[in-house]
Amino acid sequence: MAVVTREKETRELVVAEAQGETIRRQQQIQSIGGKALVYLLLIAGSIIFIAPFVWMVTSSLQDVSDMFSWPPQWIPQNPSFDNYVEFLKQERIGRYFFNSAYVAVTVTSMQLFTSSLAAYTFAKRQFPGRDLLFILTLGTMMIPGQVTLIPNYVILRHMPFFGGNDWLGNGGSGWLDSYWGLIAPQGASAFGIFLMRQYMKSIPDDLLDAAKIDGAGKFRIFAQIVMPLCRPALAALGIFTFTYVWDDFCWPLIIVSSEELRTLPLGLALFVVRNRTVWDLLMAGSVITTVPVLVIFLLFQRHFIRGIAVSGMK
Predict the structure, then answer these.
(1) In terms of DSSP H, where are the helices of 162-274?
(2) Alpha-carbon Rg of the chain, whole angstroms?
(3) pLDDT value at position 26?
(4) Residue 74: which H helix or E strand, with range?
(5) How far apart are CA 164 and CA 172, in angstroms?
(6) Dist CA 87 CA 70 (whole Å)
(7) Which residues lie below 8 Å from residue 310, measured CB to CB, with a gap of 6+?
(8) The pTM is what?
(9) Were 163 and a residue from 136, 147, 173, 265 both cysteine, which residue would form a disulfide, CB within 3.0 to 4.6 Å?
(10) Can you count the helices (H) and strands (E) in the chain?
(11) Geometric angle at alpha carbon 254, from 252 and 256, rounded to 5°
């Protein structure tokens, strides 16, 4: 009887192990199938988003006669950089490029400074009404940018003692059609304050308390302890800001009226108006406009990803 019982238990154990092995194989197959489906969707999405950019780069290396051939030539048969040379020879292109670079770098620097200072105050300083003030700051992010275009224009138009205005802000153009008008309204950002605050919340307070015990002042703690630890968040905010300002078309279009202050997006739009059928040069100009943003992202990619990941944990 005991022998029969042991044989029965052995068979049940073998069956259970076989069933467990079958379940594990099914789970592995399902896992592999799920991953394969995800990768296929990601690859398809990547192709959809990358294809227009690849076609733009390819077209910039071809003649107009080859650009619109069917089927499209994704690899140019006779690649040439003549389109880039001809585009760079256009009048004031260098000036447009300088204006975009100057405005983008200046606005990015200002936002990094103002956002980090405000974020440090909201994250590590204690004062009455701090949380309410932070909520009001976040509330400004809910206002569409188009709503503030006219108020900002009026404020810049009546800026006292600039552009021929008197002390009441009348009689001249104020900060319109100037670098001040392009830069000043974008010198601070509620999104930048939010992003930096979320990252600074992850910095231990004990580290700052130890610096206070050693005799460090508030600004020294901010400059020598907090800011070096916030490099990933600064890189992320810098990339966001630089990309937005470099590609901005609407605000410069409203503020700028002179040729000398046009940014590169405005210059490209003007080039399209003047040369409607010169698509090869337009593609070369579009590639040149895109390159600085790609370079900035590639240089700070590691810090950018880390900053976004850590900022989203709080």
Answers:
(1) 179-183, 190-200, 205-213, 218-221, 227-229, 231-247, 250-255, 264-274
(2) 29
(3) 66
(4) none
(5) 4
(6) 26
(7) 199, 202, 232, 233
(8) 0.79
(9) 173
(10) 16, 0
(11) 55
Give pLDDT, residue 21: 65
Count how many residues are written for the chain.
314
CA distances from 293 to 100, 101, 287, 290 (A): 12, 11, 11, 6
Measured between alpha carbons, how far is 38 from 32 in angstroms, rounded to an integer? 10
Q: Which two tokens stand for residue 40?
A: 């296929």
Question: Chunked in runs of 10, what are the mean pLDDT values of the chain (314 residues)?
Answer: 56 60 68 79 86 84 75 76 82 87 94 92 87 90 86 90 84 87 91 90 85 83 87 88 90 88 86 73 84 81 62 47
Break the chain into its structural domains and give their ranges: 2-67, 83-311
Residue 246 CA to residue 293 CA, distance in Å, equals 8
Distance of alpha carbon 301 from alpha carbon 241, whole angstroms: 14
pLDDT confidence of residue 19: 62
CB burial readout 103-130, b (16+ within 10 A) else e: bbebbbebbbebbbbbbbbbbbeeeeee
Six-digit token pair at 106?
A: 């200046």
244 closest CA partner among 305, 293, 299: 293
What pLDDT is attached to residue 314?
46
Superfamily (CATH H level) for 83-311: MetI-like (1.10.3720.10)
